[in-house]
Specification:
The protein has 101 residues and is an alpha+beta fold. The two termini are 34 Å apart. Helices cover 24% and strands 23% of the residues. The strands form 2 sheets. Strands 1-2-3 form a 3-stranded antiparallel beta sheet, with no helix packed on it. It is built from 3 helices and 5 strands, in the order βββααββα. The longest helix has 15 residues. The mean pLDDT is 86. The protein folds into 2 domains: 51 residues; 33 residues.
Length: 101
């Protein structure tokens, strides 16, 4: 069975994707041919998406640099740290505006 989802990459196409898996856990990800804009197209980034998600090198928990080393944080501690940093910058919104393209 195909599930319809959308690409999470930061580009203007917002590609529609079809994702399915079988009993062995194999995941198939491809462009949705019924999408009116992308018509089944996927870029090179999405072709490696599942491989990246299943990589043994993928970071699965929050980490913070401690000098030259990385320290694991709890999710609560990481979210609290982010909230503190955002609160410090609220007076100047452009300081936290993320634009990357």
């Amino acid at each position: 069975m195909n599930e319809i989802t959308a690409c999470t990459m930061d580009c203007p196409d917002a590609c529609s994707l079809l994702i399915s898996s079988d009993e062995s856990g194999f995941i198939d990800l491809r462009g949705n041919p019924d999408h009116p804009i992308t018509a089944g197209f996927t870029c090179a980034k999405i072709k490696k998406h599942i491989q990246r998600l299943q990589s043994t090198h993928r970071i699965l928990q929050p980490m913070r640099r401690d000098g030259t080393h990385w320290k694991t944080l709890s999710w609560d501690a990481a979210l609290e740290l982010c909230a503190q940093k955002i609160q410090q910058l609220r007076e100047e919104p452009k300081a936290i505006l993320h634009i990357f393209g």
